[in-house]
What we know:
The complex is a heterodimer. By secondary structure, chain A is mainly alpha-helical. Chain A contains 15 helices and no strands. Chain A has one domain (13-269): ABC transporter involved in vitamin B12 uptake, BtuC. The relative contact order of chain A is 0.15. The longest helix of chain B is centred in the N-terminal third of the chain and has 30 residues, at 2-31. Chain B has 12 helices and 4 strands. In chain B, helix 1 runs antiparallel to helix 9 (186-211), helix 2 (38-53) runs antiparallel to helix 3 (60-83) and helix 7 (164-174) packs across helix 9 (186-211). The interface between A and B is large, with 40 and 45 residues.
Amino acid sequence: xxxxxxxxxxxxxxxxxxxxxxxxxxxxxxxxxxxxxxxxxxxxxxxxxxxxxxxxxxxxxxxxxxxxxxxxxxxxxxxxxxxxxxxxxxxxxxxxxxxxxxxxxxxxxxxxxxxxxxxxxxxxxxxxxxxxxxxxxxxxxxxxxxxxxxxxxxxxxxxxxxxxxxxxxxxxxxxxxxxxxxxxxxxxxxxxxxxxxxxxxxxxxxxxxxxxxxxxxxxxxxxxxxxxxxxxxxxxxxxxxxxxxxxxxxxxxxxxxxxxxxxxxxxxxxxxxxxxxxxxxxxxxxxxxxxxxxxxxxxxxxxxxxxxxxxxxxxxxxxxxxxxxxxxxxxxxxxxxxxxxxxxxxxxxxxxxxxxxxx
Amino acid sequence: xxxxxxxxxxxxxxxxxxxxxxxxxxxxxxxxxxxxxxxxxxxxxxxxxxxxxxxxxxxxxxxxxxxxxxxxxxxxxxxxxxxxxxxxxxxxxxxxxxxxxxxxxxxxxxxxxxxxxxxxxxxxxxxxxxxxxxxxxxxxxxxxxxxxxxxxxxxxxxxxxxxxxxxxxxxxxxxxxxxxxxxxxxxxxxxxxxxxxxxxxxxxxxxxxxxxxxxxxxxxxxxxxxxxxxxxxxxxxxxxxxxxxxxxxxxxxxxxxxxxxxxxxxxxxxxxxxxxxxxxxxxxxxxxxxxxx
Lengths: 359, 293
């Protein structure tokens, strides 16, 4: 029996409608003021952490390297975007777009700069050199106060990171990375992860693809950085230390290296965890719990909200021991695939029924 | 005179870096793991030293022994709980686990001891005072630091080069499978390597706390990263390389600070690392390994 496939245009149409519907719902929720400020801010934060995680996933998950300096690219993008926006060269609307592009491009340039020397190195050494570059960027930002405000920070950045802007950036990032990975370039990147020497002997220019993956990844990290700046309104170099890089890596690893759906889900969960726990602790239902258990549950929830890093670290260790491929492994969510499966199952059911009638 | 005192500074700092770098290097040499948690073992060692000197009021020698033993025990527990189950997992998973342990230790320390830095009573460990040699004043702290680390490194070199255990260590790092076939208990050797590295870290923790008396949960992070850079610079996996790398990094730092550019020290350290790795991708004394499919 020929398997049922949803035709390509229908798939694209379906996904586009879904994206627009989500945008409308989100926009309505955010702008109408139904959501409290903290929650609205959390949604924005989830947005740029998704971009950071998806972009890191490109080098960590698909290319199979371990970059430890993602916060460095984010910092470059954040400062470039912030300085551009502060200068007020263009009217607001154009300024947002150009600023984001500019932030991404400069960060990508840094990505290429790091990618080229890193090419001679493999595995652990590459991890170290990216760590070194990340720290150097932070030291650099700290020490050119005339441009970046130094350790005091850069103030008065226009708050450009509205839900609309962040959402569109998230969608563009996910679509771009998805399309890259479905193309022949994406397959080349995957082959480098699987076996670099074998890939090279098959005629894949590993140098070129490694630099490309680094540049792509840095571009989106830069965009996320600019969004970060536009959300906070103030930048201090301390924000972009080694721990931030590790935080992003943690999202990617827990979500599943090489799974975009995993990166998105993990970014949402890990970023919202403190807020959710705090919210649960004040939830009405808990007060119906009998006796002392009410206080215990509340205490535990609040403890998790305050010490989330301990939980994350434990999760990271347990995940590596129990399921080293992360939450979703390299499974990726596809709406059309699920629909196809459902339709096929129904068709099979019908066919069996039809057969029984005849017999 | 100024140069000599700067040199003493560099030697003091370099001794500590070298001790810590040795821990990274030995572990890498044997299971190819960048042990990110090493710096945080030192942080825990700093707290153990602090409390055994102040709260428990032990004499310095006992406190030092407790610190070294505590660090060793911690490293062995970490190795058994977190690294042994991943012996045959991809190396990336192992590295991520090490990062997880590092974050866990830092945050647990923050939970237990709060994030506020505590000052370390150096005088209770090493008496204040100095000797004058040819017009140069030498404090007891740098002198003992340099002497103690040289002694530790000499003991380590003896252990690795002259004893049967050391021979087994070198064999496992050369070829784990072949060593196992020769009747070497690989698990014991790996645990021993971790213990040895952590014991050196314990000594490093004492000397670091004495020289830079400020104990805080993030203490291990920058110290760890610098020592780790030293190990990579010297050629990770090589014991003399780690020593050379440690002293080189310290010399560079002191040089940059004495030029009045103290804010750029971290940058300079990483710049040198990148430059060296670009010219010699396996560090100064590392062996270049061919990779096969």
